[in-house]
């Protein structure tokens, strides 16, 4: 990207980041609460040193048809001269008062349905991001996120999520670069947040011959870790005991600031993954299916991982297979959720769900019984 995306000066004049209301700080930007026509907005401020990151993120938000319930809503991008005469870049988006999923999970626990809603909605956003679409003359390339983690996901007031932070994202289809030089290959494969890096990223072994699938698989690995963080705060999965405090994936194994080398040893060499707690040894269909879904996302073999579309279906099914006979079971009424998926309506017709706990291929089974 060689030039600044078209800016809307009108937005610039009306948008005022309030420097006293810092709401988040990441590696590339500082996020403030601001207002636009009295409406609260979030303003991500990039310094000139992070210009490339700003350009990339705004170019992703401007991808045609990117608007989606589970992707943060972009308002405007702009350039301005900051307080000390330095150039700054502003990215304006909707403000989500619950903040990041990580922050939300550290303050809240959720029941099974609530946890499924969080996980399902993130997956739905990612599946949409990963999809190449043609709508009449309009073309949406497939996009990989490349820095998916629980800080780059925000929670909406209805208990569903949106994905944010496209600073490292890449369009995967459309104007595919023909051949990359070695330097560029490293740039393509070695990005993200260390804790959430897939084994092939840690090994510098991302399969760039099929860049599109490979980069989607890297996102899926990180999604598996996000599921673990989410369900570790699920009250229904810890019956009769208190839910553990929120933990980031690998926090127990690698602490708060793991190095690249730490993660290489843990994830690539020792093939470790976040541990399932004692309480999840219980052999119920829901717990087994959930663990299987996580394992199928963070598989060592990138090509064996679920696609986001497939994970989305699994999460929709998980929401329905909670054992109703359990006293701790939430009132399972998926119709009352805002998950818009026709299969829910099919699946919740009385008498339409029959689950054989002995079935090994749980998901195929549930799917074929309800479809
Ligand atoms: N629209 C928003 N509403 C509320 N909080 C936000 C919003 N955007 C970002 N944040 C907070 O700011 C943090 C940093 O934002 P992010 O876009 O991830 O920046 P970076 O690229 O520096 O990581 C997020 O983890 C989140 O806590
Ligand atoms: Mg971030």
Walkthrough of the structure:
The protein contains 13 helices and 11 strands. The chain is globular and about 60 Å long. The protein folds into 2 domains: 10-97 and 353-367, Phosphorylase Kinase, domain 1 (2-Layer Sandwich), CATH 3.30.200.20; 101-153 and 170-342, Transferase(Phosphotransferase) domain 1 (Transferase(Phosphotransferase), domain 1, Orthogonal Bundle). The strands form 4 sheets. Strands 1-2-3-5-4 form a 5-stranded antiparallel β-sheet. It has helices at residues 9-14, 51-61, 101-107, 112-129, 182-189, 199-202, 211-231, 251-254, 260-269, 285-297, 308-318, 342-347, 362-370, and strands at 16-25, 29-36, 39-47, 74-81, 87-94, 133-135, 138-140, 143-144, 153-155, 161-163, 170-171. Strand 9 and strand 10 form a beta hairpin. Bound molecules: adenosine-5'-diphosphate and magnesium ion. Magnesium ion is lined by residues 26, 151-152, 165.
Which architecture of the largest domain would the CATH scheme give at its second level? Orthogonal Bundle
Order of helices and strands: HEEEHEEHHEEEEEEHHHHHHHHH
Please compute the radius of gyration using only Cα atoms: 21 Å
Termini separation comes to 45 Å
How many domain modules?
A: 2
Strand content: 15-25%
Shape verdict:
globular
* Class from helix and strand fractions: alpha+beta
Largest sheet: 5 strands, antiparallel
Roughly what is the average pLDDT, rounded to an integer? Answer: 84
**Bound compounds:** adenosine-5'-diphosphate, magnesium ion
Looking at CATH, which topology of the largest domain would you report?
A: Transferase(Phosphotransferase), domain 1
Biased composition (Polar residues): 1-10
Keywords: ATP-binding, Kinase, Membrane, Nucleotide-binding, Receptor, Serine/threonine-protein kinase, Signal, Transferase, Transmembrane, Transmembrane helix
Organism: Neogobius melanostomus (round goby)
Membrane topology: Single-pass type I membrane protein
């Amino acid at each position: 990207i060689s030039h600044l995306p078209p800016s809307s000066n009108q937005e610039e004049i009306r948008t005022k980041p309030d420097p006293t209301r810092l709401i988040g700080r990441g590696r590339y930007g500082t996020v403030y609460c601001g207002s636009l026509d009295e409406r609260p907005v979030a303003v991500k401020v990039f310094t000139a040193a992070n210009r490339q990151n700003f350009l990339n993120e705004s170019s992703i938000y401007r991808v045609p048809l990117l608007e989606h319930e589970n992707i943060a809503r972009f308002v405007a991008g702009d350039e301005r001269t900051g307080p000390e005469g330095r150039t700054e870049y502003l990215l304006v988006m909707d403000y989500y008062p619950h903040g990041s999923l990580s922050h939300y999970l550290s303050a809240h626990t959720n029941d099974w349905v609530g946890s499924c809603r969080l996980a399902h909605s993130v997956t739905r956003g990612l599946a949409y991001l990963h999809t190449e679409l043609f709508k009449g003359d309009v073309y949406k390339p497939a996009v990989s996120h490349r820095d998916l983690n629980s800080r780059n996901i925000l929670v909406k007031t209805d208990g569903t999520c949106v994905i944010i932070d496209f600073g490292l994202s890449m369009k995967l289809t459309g104007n595919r670069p023909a051949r990359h030089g070695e330097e560029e290959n490293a740039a393509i494969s070695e990005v993200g947040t260390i804790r959430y890096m897939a084994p092939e990223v840690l090994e510098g072994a991302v399969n760039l011959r099929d860049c599109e699938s490979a980069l989607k698989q890297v996102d899926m690995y990180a999604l598996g870790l996000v599921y673990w963080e989410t369900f570790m705060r699920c009250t229904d999965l810890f019956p009769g005991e208190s839910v553990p405090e929120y933990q980031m994936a690998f926090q127990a194994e690698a602490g708060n600031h793991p190095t690249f080398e730490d993660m290489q040893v843990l994830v690539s060499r020792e093939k470790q993954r976040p541990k399932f707690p004692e309480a999840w040894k219980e052999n119920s269909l829901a717990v087994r299916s959930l663990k299987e879904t996580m394992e199928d996302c963070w598989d060592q073999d990138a090509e064996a991982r679920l696609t986001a579309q497939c994970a989305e279906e699994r999460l929709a099914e998980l929401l329905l297979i909670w054992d109703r006979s359990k006293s701790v079971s939430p009132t399972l009424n998926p119709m009352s959720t805002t998950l818009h998926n026709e299969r829910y309506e099919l699946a919740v017709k009385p008498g339409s769900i029959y689950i054989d706990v002995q079935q090994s291929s749980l998901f195929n089974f549930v799917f074929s019984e309800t479809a």
